[in-house]
Amino acid sequence: MKICCLVKEVPDAAVQKRINPETKRLDRSGEKNLNPFDTHAIEAAMQLKEGGDVEVDEIVAVTMGPDSAVRALHKAVALGADRSLHLTDGALEGSDVAATGYALAKLLESESPDLVLLGQQSDDGECYTIGAVVADHLKMPSLTQVIKMDAAGGKLTLERQAEYGYDTVEVELPAVISVGDAINEPRYPSLKAIMGAKKKPLDTKSTADVGIEADRVGEGGSRTAVLEINPPPAKESGEIIEDEDTNETVEKIVAWLDERKLI
Amino acid sequence: MNFDLNDEQRAIKDTARELLASRFKLDKVRELAESGSYDDAIWKEIGGLGWAGIAVPEEHGGQGLGIVELMLLCEEVGYACAPLPLFSSAAAGLVIASAGSDEQRERWLPELSSGQVTAGIPATAPEDDSVMIDADGAAVLAFDRGEGPRLAEPSEVEISGLDLIDRTRRYSQLSGEGGQEIPGEIDWALAAITIAFAGELTGLAQRAMEMAVEYARDREQFGRPIGAYQGVSHACAKMLYDVEEARSLTYYAAWCADAQPESLPLAASMAKARASEAAWDVAAASLQVHGGIAFTWEHDLQFFLKRARVSSGLYGTPRRHRNRVADIAGLGSLEPATA
User: Are A35 and A8 in contact (CB under 8 A)?
Assistant: First the structure.
C-alpha cells in the first residue's frame, strides 16, 4: 500500500493572523511551521505501517507551496514519511480551495496512491474542504473527521465523528480520508530523524510536470474572488447577574436559560 | 557569514519547545516540585528521542551532535522549568566521552545516551561543599573531591539529600572517594557543561520575561494596561536586553566549543557570568512587574525565580567568571574571588 499524506506549510501558531488588505489574502509572512493538524495524518499513516494489519510500502508527504514549504516537508519526513513531493510554481500563487484541490489531485495522480490522508483543516485558511475537492477530482470516496481507522483486506473500517455521535463506515481503497485531531497523539521526531530528514528523497514538480492546466490554477484560475474584508461585528456585552441572594440568582439564571430554550 | 541556527538546529529547538510545553505544563511542574520527584514516563520518552546522548559520539550510542545542539536543548529545559535529569546525564556523558577510559565509555555511554540510566554530577567546585545535581537515583556519579575527577556507582560513596529552595531539581551532597579515576583531561568538558548550563539560565530568563510582558499587557490599573506606564515598560525592556545579551554570549560560546576551542575558556566564562546575572535579574524584575501576586505560593513565577536563584551560583558565580575573564584577558584579578 502506498499512502500519500497531504501537508501544508502554515504561519506558526504564535504568529497573529492578518489579512493583507491589498491582496485580500492571508498574510503568510513570519515564522512558519508544518500545519499541526497534518501531523495527525502522518501519525495515522505511521500507525497503519507499524500496526502490521496491512503492508505499507511507503508513506509520501505531499505539498503545494513556495520554496519555503520544503521545511514543512522535512518535518513531515522527520515524523516518519519515507520521501516527499513538492509542487511549486509561480502560476499556483493565489489559488483558492477549488484550484488547490485540482492541482493537488493532478500531483497525486502521478503517484497513484492507495490512500490519501490529510488533517481536518489547515491552521491558516481553516476551510476543512480540501480533502473532498481532491477526492472529487480523483474519483475516490472521501470521508472527513475520522477518529479511528482499522485496515484489513483492502478495506478501511473508520469511525467518524459527527454532531449526533459516531458513524462507523467501511470504505474500499483507494480513498481520501481527512482525520480529526482526536484520532491520535502525534509523536515527536527523534534527533536522528531530524538530522536525517534532508537525506530522504524530495522530488520537486512544476505545473507542467504533472499536466496542470494553467487556466485552472492561480488567482486567474480560481472560481472565488474576495470582494471585501470586514472585521466581525463587535460582541454585545453580556448580562451580569450580581449574586446578592443566591436563591434569587439561581432563579434568574434558570429563567435566562429557559427564555432561550437552553434547558 | 551566517550567525543563525541551521534548519536542523532550529528543528531541534522547536521540537524541544513543543514537547516540553506539552509534557511540563506549569501544574505538572508544580506537582513534581512539590513531590520532589521526576516523571519516569516522560524521561523514558525523552530518552527514546536521543536527547541525553545528543553530544555523545555515535560509536558510543549517542547522536554525535555538538555543544550548540546540547545548549539548545538545555535552553528549552530552562524555558519549561522542567524537572528532568537531562542536563546531568548529558553532562556526565560529555565527561566520560571526552576523558573516560575505554572501559568507562563502554560501560556507561550507551545506557546514558539512551536514557536507560541517569547520572549525577557536581555543580560546584570541591571547596564549595560539592553540591551534586541528580545524584539521588542516578546509576553513576562523576565528581571531583579535590583529588581529581572520578566515576563511581552510588554504593561506592555517600550521598545525602540537600534541601534547597529550588524544588524543580534534585540536589545532594556527596562524601567519600570511592570509584575509579577518570584518566583524561576534563577542561573541555567542564567548559562545555558550563555553556550548556548557561543555556538553561537563558531559557529561564526568557520565560520569566515573557510572563512579565504577558502580565503587563493584561493587568490594568487606572484604565490602562500596566505596561503602558514607563516604570513597567522600562523594566521589561531591560529584561529583553539582559536575555538577548545572555543568549548571544551563550550561543557564541557553544559555537566556540564545537569550532574554535582556543576561544572556549574566555567565551564560556563570559557566557556563564552574563547568563547567571540575567536569570536572576530578569526573574527578580518579573516578580516586581507582577506585584504582590507573584509573592504567593499559588503563582508559578516562584519556580523560575527559585531555580534562577540557585542555578545562577552553580558552575561558578558571575564574580568568579568575571575574574577568569580578566585573567584570560591579561588584566589580572579584578575582584576578590571569594564567591
Answer: yes
